[in-house]
Each structure stands twice: as structure tokens, then as C-alpha cells.
Fold:
Amino acid sequence: MPSKILIALQGQNVLQSSLSLDYLLLNSAYPFLQVHKFNTFTISPPSVLKTVEHDLGYYPFTMVFSQLVKEDGSVTDEYYQHNWDILLVNEIFGRTDILKNTIEIRVGGPVDAARDVQGFYYIFKNKMRNS
Structure:
């Protein structure tokens, strides 16, 4: 009989056969992401680019969040998942390019020259599909 690892939320019994996946923190019978690297970043003007090396040799699955730059150039206090853009009169963008050994985090547009954009990222050991 194959073994699996179960970790339940506090107050739940993993031995209960009817326990829903909603009450499990981990069930090794299902795939999960392995974190390779994570950190915070700052993009300071005039730069629009932060390059992060991962040296995996393939296109990994990533998650990047940054502060949103508004159309007037101000930076919000909230964090948004990357790949946002506002294409009105001015082009403002937050984009992540995933490469075989690096990721390139870009935030650009007509922004206030005194602003810094803060963010954080996760690079997982899992390959992106079809890469």
C-alpha cells in the first residue's frame, strides 16, 4: 500500500477518512511547488529592471508581486501580482520575463523620478509547462 504524508490544519484529524482537502495543509498524493529561491526587491529610478539569477537551466514557474505604479506616476502601498499594465495615454507596465538562468523584473512608465518600487518574488524548482 503506497504511503502518503498528510498535515492537517490545527484541530483536524488526519486519520478521519472523510477529511476534505480544504482542511489539509499538505497531502503528498498531490503535486506541490518546491521553492528554489525567494526574496524582496527594490527598483530605484532611473532603472526599470531587476535581474535575479536562478541558474536552474530551464524556465521555472515563478510568482512576482510589486507595488502598482499609477497613471499619474505615483506608487501604491498595495502589492499586485506581476504582469499588470495601464495602457491609457501613458504606458505603465510591470512585467516579468522568465529565462533559463534568470528572471527579469521590469517596472516602467512615466513615473515620479523619486519613487522606488518594492516587490517580492518566488522562483520554484518546477518547470513551466512546455518549456
Summary: The mean pLDDT is 82. The longest strand covers residues 117-127. DSSP finds no helices and ten strands in the chain. The chain has two domains: 1-32, 34-127.
